[in-house]
């Protein structure tokens, strides 16, 4: 047992060392965002695939002789290999009914497999087109975390850079804030980030707009509940 564990650790060491390089790949988390988008639709697709595989394996087990397909798990293996178009060739239908059904299964599986591939591909395409905004948001959130600012500190943070002292930033204030944060952004990227946060197109950014983009989960806690308390009082 100890030798098996040691062998497993030795086999995993190269992969684990390779994972350390992920810190240098800033765009890697875009793949995570893509799978987050696709995950909403994948359960239904996976359920449909499971139903197709179980139904198909039942028919294959019924049509084939026990010498060829000796058990239902063996039929499920054949069905899975057929659906994924891997087909190792270790098991295949020999009866006429089994061959005809497998042919229909190949056509149905080809149509089915286009759905999850299309969903994942479309999700990644959407994320990639939006990569600049996502990367800018991640950099800003990381820098704020390094400085020790939480969503509740954003109002104070804005007061430091607001020239009018009202906690609202115009583009000049925002550009100065980005320079202090040392994000390494060009003027064009700073303008894109400003337009992202300026949700209402007013030419200024208030703390609520800033929090709504970077920390959407904290907006209700910080602002909506406060407004409700003011109304009730």
Number of helices: 11
Number of strands: 0
> What global shape is seen?
elongated
- By oligomeric state, this entry counts as single chain
Low-confidence stretches: 226-233
Secondary structure class reads: mainly alpha
Amino-to-carboxy terminus distance: 67 Å
Helical residue percent band:
over 70%
Mean pLDDT: 80
Proportion of residues in β-strands: under 5%
Radius of gyration: 28 Å
Q: Main beta sheet, described?
A: none
**Helix and strand element order:** HHHHHHHHHHH
Brief rundown of the structure:
The chain has eleven helices and no strands. The protein is an all-alpha fold and 233 residues long. The longest helix is centred in the middle third of the chain and has 34 residues, at 96-129.
Task: Give a description of the structure.
It is built from eleven helices and no strands. With 233 residues, the chain is mainly alpha-helical. The chain is elongated and about 85 Å long.
Key features of this structure:
single chain, about 230 residues, 11 helices, elongated, disordered C terminus
